[in-house]
Design goal:
By secondary structure, the chain is mostly helical. The protein has one domain. About 75% of the residues lie in helices and about 0% in strands. Helix 4 (about 80-95) runs parallel beside helix 8 (about 165-190) and helix 5 (about 105-120) runs antiparallel to helix 10. The chain is globular, with a radius of gyration of 17 Å.
Length: about 250
Amino acid sequence: MDFLGTPDVGPLLFLGLTLASFVTAFIGVFTGTAGGLILLGLMAMVMPPAALLPVHTVVQLGSGVTRTILMWRFVMRATLPPFIVGAALGAAAGAKIFIALPVWSLQTILGLFILVVTWLPQLGRIGAERGRFVALGFVATFVGIFVSATGTLVTPFVASAAPDRRNHAATLGALMVFVHIAKMAAFGVIGFTIGAYVPLMAAMIAAGAAGNWLGEEALHRTTEWRFRLILKLFLTVLGLQLLWSAARAGWM
């Protein structure tokens, strides 16, 4: 059944994906990471591969825009211009270059990177902030063309630069907006067509906005120490999970 014209999506699946967008948006704000990655994993179970990354990108763009609007006063605005430059370069390169590395190699690199920068935060402050965020924008967008959920890659650097948990959540949301815009431009060049998924994307974006609002309210009520602990634990689990997936794929 094609509910509201969405290919191979019935009403229960439509509702389930909408609810998943709400829950993962809340997780993304309250924990500072992982929301997009969890949503990608859930969507991958039920959506065709050709539509998965473009649809996920649009939904995450909507979630990032609403988070940025809600928390604009906390965004570290000096990080935006250099990151935007890097994101534009990364999208241009990603749309043209075929990645020959096997998935398990990329998972290994990302997993190790996340663990190292999470537990050695001084590495996330190496060099001038402007140059660091240009490079970060390039890498996050370039890799995002192929694996979509790269917020976890950006998170340790934002955590190192953010003086407060609200600065972290707001700035991460704003930076990922530009990653997703650049990726959408790249997908347009590559030739993906996702018009049939507009009703589903609209519902998931609206649910994500509600999740962002609730996540911000919860963030104001928690302590900085608790937030940083939750963030480190989530990043550690995600890094280890990537390494485990890479090891299994490598052995197979």
